[in-house]
Structures are given as C-alpha cells and as structure tokens.
Amino acid sequence: EIMSAILKAPVDLLWFGGIGTYLRASTETNQDAGDRANDAIRVTALEVRAKVIGEGANLGATQRARIEFGLNGGRCNSDAIDNSGGVNC
Prior knowledge:
Layout: H1 2-7, E1 13-16, E2 23-24, H2 30-33, E3 43-44, E4 52-55, H3 63-71, E5 75-76, H4 79-88
Parallel strand pairs: 1-4, 2-3, 4-5
C-alpha cells in the first residue's frame, strides 16, 4: 500500500531509480506491462498526480503510460533519455 501511495502522491517529481515497470496506461493490463514482480503495486498513468516523471531506471513506465500521462498534462521523457545521463557520465 505504501508504494502505491507514493506512486499516486501529489508531488513535483516522481523519480524512478530502480528496475521495474510501475506505470501502465489505463487501457493496458498488468500482463501488458510485462513485469509480474510489480503487478501488486503498479498504477495507471491517470492515477499519477506528479507533475513530472523522471525515469532514471529502465522501463519505469510503458510507452502508452508515458503518452497517457503527457496527454493529461504531465511531463516526461522516455527512459532512454533520462537514463542516458547516468550512462554517459
């Protein structure tokens, strides 16, 4: 419950720093996300109240979740953009 609450918290930045797919689009199932280990805590992009998502980890959100989050006023890059800073430094 605490992890789910963190994912839904009204914050400026939601930062993913570990491997796992924590966000899916409302039109996707947990099976579509392809990460059974995090099915119990995964939320939909519509439930996220953060202004910005930073994906310092791989695959923090599905591509459809990123699109849905962006269409609802959120800001995010793909994980490859945010993660490249750690790879290139």
